[in-house]
């Protein structure tokens, strides 16, 4: 339930954010800061998983919120880039178009109906592709290792006698 609420809140922020400006150096710095913050979030979530009373459930929650945030950071950047002069993409991107493009890159589907045409848009798309690989490899491994530690820790804890009374 918590993951659903967080994801809905993130999506609401994305769709209400005024992303109708050009992609500038400042927005590039904000994107970089958001990706660094995502790294901090992953570390915090891994610790939370390892110390959770329900490490398996906490892992699913962590993956859900992390994937949503990762995708929305890139979708926001693509939406901003579509307002550049010259435009960064083959067509102007709405919030939905930008999210659609982000998801097609993440899933490697690549329908090719939206294409990055500027050097900056192509570079950011390449960063997302590499980020996708890192995300799938590193983040999944970190979360699964934290879950393993949490399950092992729970198995080694003395039983709770409160339920035996």
UniProtKB/TrEMBL annotation:
**Which top-rank group of organisms is this from?**
Bacteria
Q: Tell whether RNA-binding is among the UniProt keywords.
A: no
User: Is Transmembrane one of the keywords UniProt gives this record?
Assistant: yes
**Stored InterPro entries:** K_chnl_dom
List all membrane-crossing ranges: 31-50, 62-81, 93-111, 123-144
What Pfam families does the database record attribute to this sequence?
Answer: Ion_trans_2
- Keywords in alphabetical order: Membrane, Transmembrane, Transmembrane helix
Sequence ranges assigned to domain Potassium channel in this UniProt record:
67-148
Q: What protein is this chain from?
A: Potassium channel domain-containing protein
Question: What is the organism field in this record?
Answer: Actinomadura luteofluorescens
């Amino acid at each position: 339930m918590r993951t659903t609420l967080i994801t809905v809140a993130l999506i609401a922020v994305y769709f209400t954010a005024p992303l109708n400006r050009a992609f500038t150096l400042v927005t590039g710095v904000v994107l970089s800061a958001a990706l660094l913050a995502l790294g901090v979030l992953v570390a915090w979530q891994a610790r939370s998983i390892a110390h959770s009373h329900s490490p398996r459930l906490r892992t699913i929650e962590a993956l859900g919120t992390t994937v949503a945030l990762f995708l929305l950071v890139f979708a926001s950047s693509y939406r901003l880039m579509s307002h550049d002069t010259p435009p960064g993409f083959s067509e102007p991107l709405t919030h939905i178009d930008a999210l659609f493009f982000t998801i097609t890159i993440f899933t490697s589907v690549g329908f090719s109906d939206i294409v990055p045409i500027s050097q900056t848009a192509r570079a950011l798309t390449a960063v997302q592709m590499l980020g996708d690989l890192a995300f799938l490899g590193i983040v999944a491994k970190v979360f699964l290792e934290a879950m393993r530690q949490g399950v092992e820790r729970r198995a080694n804890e003395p039983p709770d006698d409160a339920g035996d009374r």
